Amino acid sequence: MKILIIGGGGREHAICWKIKSYSKDYEIFAIPGNGGIAQIGQCVKKDSSNFNEILEISEENKIDLIIVGPENPLSEGIVDFFKSKGYKIFGPTKKAALFESSKCFAKEFMKKYNIPTADFQITDSFEESVKIIEKRKLPYVIKFDGLAAGKGVRVIENYQEGKNYLEEIFIKKIFKGETKVVIEDCLVGKELSYLIFTDTNTYIPMVPAKDYKRVFDDDKGPNTGGMGCYSPPNYFNEELEQEIKKKIVEPTLKGFERENIDYRGVLYFGLMITNQGPYVLEYNVRFGDPETQVILPRMESDLVEVCESVIEGSLNKINIKWKEEKSLCVILASKGYPGEYEKGKEIKNLDKVEDVVLFHAGTKLENGKILTDGGRVLGVCGIDKDIEKLRGKVYKAVQTIDFEGKHYRKDIGLL
After folding, report:
1. Do residues 70 and 52 lie in contact, with contact meaning Cβ atoms separated by under 8 Å?
2. Which of 374, 48, 292 minimizes the C-alpha distance to 29?
3. How far, CA to CA in Å, does 378 sit from each of 10, 24, 46, 264?
4. CA 348 to CA 314: how far, in whole Å?
5. CA-based Rg of the chain, rounded to a whole angstrom?
6. pTM for the whole structure
7. Which residues partner with 371 through β-bridges?
8. DSSP labels for 200-244?
9. Using an 8 Å Cβ cutoff, are 329 and 293 in contact?
10. Does residue 330 share a domain with residue 289?
11. Residue 163, SS3?
């Protein structure tokens, strides 16, 4: 069976690794892929937003199944395009992808269906936004409406900081797309990533994870796409899971039904566990990154079978088995990330690490060498029953791997 993965980050490498480690009979292709995927599959350096080029490659290689990793192609309608060409493709349609591509749409949906979320206001002008923040209780959160690679959300601690960020969005236009923002209360608690597979009628939860968004230890510094992750978080339990299902997951799926949204794929609930219970921070319409790098190593079932059953609407016929062990991932980033960073640094000692899995994110294979090629470079992941042993072996590998400007958080799995 020939499977094409769209994307080239750590999440996509984890998907490829999971598929290949389940069965060697699966043949992997990736667009554009990365240095790690190139070692287990065929990478085709094409633009993942050029659907006609992807179609040509799919036809040439007789692709049986397409799995979409990132949010951008989903929001651009890649699923609609390939379904119309008769392909099996895993991921939600353009209409369903609005839950991630528009923060305003998602918040209005939550309000309509009484899904717990922070109190918010939506605005599309600089002047109106400034009037709102003049009256807002500190701290509060400003979210850019569109896709911003995990960097469009900012917690605001004082008036000037809020005004400066609004200037960046509305006047300097640092993000692409329509300039709208959500201004909302800042929720306090513990973050939780709760992901499900769903074919609209049925859903199967994945094991939960905690993602570390801020770039520095103790949750300091700007937001990133994720600096590390572990699963399951030590504050997760059966009672909390039942509350999440009852108050958040099931009302969301009922809302889909009422709005006539056929949702097939992964639905990611970014939650804050407050003293008043779980609240939704955001929806994502795909596997999380780095969450996928800790969730898939705990999965014992065949990911391809799960994806096919979602596409076919037969998720109710399968069972997913998970390992009891804990998993943990530390992201190695380039110096300067999430701001400006350099590329092309040689990554050394990859062959000297043991008892971990390395998921490549921003890497490329050039003349037999693995070089840095992005802000987040590698995910160093491990699995073990004991969290202290697990942290020990992952951080030992983190310290062994070397490249110029290597940066990582030292507190993954502690908070």
Report:
1. no
2. 48
3. 7, 24, 22, 29
4. 45
5. 21
6. 0.95
7. 346, 364
8. SS-EEEPPPBEE--EEEGGGEEEE-S-SEEEES-TT--HHHHHHH
9. yes
10. no
11. helix
300 and 199 within one domain:
yes
Residue of 293, 261, 107 whose CA lies nearest to 195: 293
**Domain contains 102:** no
3-class DSSP assignment, residue 98: helix
Give the per-residue pLDDT at 151. 77
Asked whether residue 365 is assigned to any structural domain, the reply reads: yes
Q: Using alpha carbons, list the distances in angstroms from residue 56 to 48, 63, 274, 314.
A: 13, 10, 49, 29
Strand, helix or coil at 199? Answer: coil
Q: Distances from the Cα of 229 to the Cαs of 295, 297, 354, in angstroms?
A: 10, 13, 19
- Residues 214 and 155 placed together within one structural domain of the fold: no
Confirm if 71 and 94 have CB atoms less than 8 A apart: no
pLDDT reported for residue 164 = 95
| pLDDT value for 178 | 83
Environment class of 274 (CB within 10 Å of its CB; exposed 0-12, middle 13-18, buried 19+) = middle
Helix axis angle, 126-135 relative to 159-170, nearest 10°? Answer: 160
In a domain, 302, yes or no: yes
Cα–Cα distance measured from residue 117 to residue 185, given in angstroms and rounded to the nearest whole number: 9
CA–CA gap between residue 210 and residue 233 (Å, rounded) = 6
What share of the chain has pLDDT > 70, as a percent? Answer: 100
Q: Residue 105 and residue 158: Cα distance in Å, rounded?
A: 27
Is a pLDDT exceeding 80 seen at residue 346? yes
Structure tokens at 140: 């509060």
The residue type of 66 is: I
Phi-psi sector, 413: left (phi>0), alpha (psi -120 to 50), beta: left
DSSP label at residue 405? T
Instruction: Give the pLDDT score at 148.
Output: 84
Are 344 and 362 contained in the same domain?
yes
Name 52's Cβ contacts closer than 8 Å, sequence gap at least 6. none
- Assign residue 385 a region: left if phi > 0, alpha if psi is -120 to 50, beta otherwise? alpha
- Domain span including residue 331: 326-400
Length of the chain measured in residues: 415
68 in the same domain as 6: yes
